[in-house]
Amino acid sequence: MKQQLKNDLLLRAARCLLVERVPVWMMRQAGRSDPQYREIREKCNLPLERLFRTCPAPMSDTDVELAVKISLLPKRIGVDAIIVYKDILTPLAPMGAQFRFLPGPVLDPPIRTQSKIDSLCPLDKPHVQLEFTGCVIRSLRETLNSELPLIGFAGAPLTLAFFMIAGESPMKRGAGISEKAKPVFEMMNEAPQLLHRLLDKLTDMTVQYLNYQISRGVQIVQLFESVADVLSQHKYEEFALPYHQRIFAELNSDVPSIIFAKECPYINLMHQSGADVLSLGKCVDIRKAKTVIGDSVAFQGNVDNDILRDGTFSDITDAVHTCLKQGQQTGHILNLSHGLHRDTPFENVKHFVHISKKLQEN
User: Fold this and answer.
1) Nearest to 221 by CA among 164, 147, 169, 152
2) CA distance 111 to 147
3) Which of 89, 112, 152, 217 has an alpha carbon within 20 to 30 A of 253's alpha carbon?
């Protein structure tokens, strides 16, 4: 018999069930904006590929303990869920696309030819190929002891393809896309069948990867389409949406699912993905999205992550109040428009969580 969660607000909100208050968590909540995270990184002195386990080094209990410890850091500030500490590039290593972090991710050589795409290995034994991820999830569930739900995640196929074809992060430090992403758009326009070949492989992998995480104990999953903000509607419909639909159709439906498409204005297309929750950017008013889509899905978001970095406590309070009012109480998960910026003051992060609860007190 499964032990009941002490705090199941996130899971109920994702299913559009009644909740006492809107749950809150943040993308990148376990990471670089947290001084305790930076302290752990400095003390352990391990490269990110070791912490994310995208390297072939033998697994150790110490590595698992570190990943668990980092994942749990946001618990002390009162979030309503814990997300597994890992990277969207993690499952690419066993496929043969080994990224190194120098400090950003680098793949040399990048994947740009049919022979390289065809040489990618399938993720057909995730319990072996991604044993580390399974061990971290199992340990997190044991440590949490049903206190909070655990979120698993994966990068969407097109986002992963951008990294693989560019050979590094396709995103600029601030916003938008870098020149390194030019070969991706060239492939879209000049060799779309080649890109679809890669996306097919990545979709098969992502289904296996997310279902493996579910089998090991995550209770909700999120798919990250982090390049959605640079896609025209036509390109989103051709290179993103069909693969989202395949993934959500083949996921274990026992757990709810979230689609995050960075600053995507195509709400109807996000809805067509089949996800239970649509995670919206700051370009969308949740109230209007609810009017358009109805109550068949839940919504996540969408406080501007720039406000947490640059704003005052008062600015953050106003933004949270507006978001809660737009999203209403049922079918809403409070989050950001995107992940926490590296230089976000940690006091602002704590205030975001605190004020979200304070504003909902009766």
Assistant:
1) 152
2) 42
3) 89
